[in-house]
Amino acid sequence: MAGAGPKSSASRLGIRLPYIASRIYFLLIFLQIPLFRVQCRSGMCTTPLAVTSCQLIASDVFPVVAVKALLYPGAFVHSVATDLSFPSWEGLLVQYNLTNAQLSSSVIDLQRLEVLAGSYFAVAGAFVALLKPGRMSMFGTLLIVWGLVKESLLGKPVNTDPAKAVYVYPTMFLALVCSFFSVKYDMQKVSSLAKPIAKPLKSSSKAKLK
């Protein structure tokens, strides 16, 4: 009975951990905490939601009202934290430099497909994980990391302007950790697979036949 306490608390932590991690990940995404810096249609984007919003505005997939609704929580927190003001709903697209996103070149998106696709998965995964933790946010975060690594280390695409160079904030590591822990694993199934299956020895089976 004495050893049941730590085991039960550890099991409870294992059950709650995906939900805690998924909610931290949701706050990182929808409050638009800067994770990286990369060139996009609006200029320079620092969050997956900013990258996704640029593409949504440019492609007319979502109505403008829906994109504003996604951007407003992060804009609200940023405005209150900086100068204790409230962002204007009408001027939200101007604040994020999205008014000319449709006229921007699509070459930027084609050069950074991993970051673009990863941002889509990260935003969708953060929302879905509130209902049921899954692998979508982890997959999106890994895509973003690979896209940033490819551009910064391999130099693809080539960038000669230091002001537009790729930069990764320390919060990106927190997002990566939360995306991994937001995946809900069946620990009983994992432990059962980890246990070796006992097989009868050949000598004993032969002895029984004799």
Automatic annotation (TrEMBL):
The chain crosses the membrane at residues 20-38, 120-146, 166-183. This is Uncharacterized protein. Keywords: Membrane, Transmembrane, Transmembrane helix. It comes from Picea sitchensis (Sitka spruce). It comes from the Eukaryota. The lineage of its organism: Eukaryota, Viridiplantae, Streptophyta, Embryophyta, Tracheophyta.
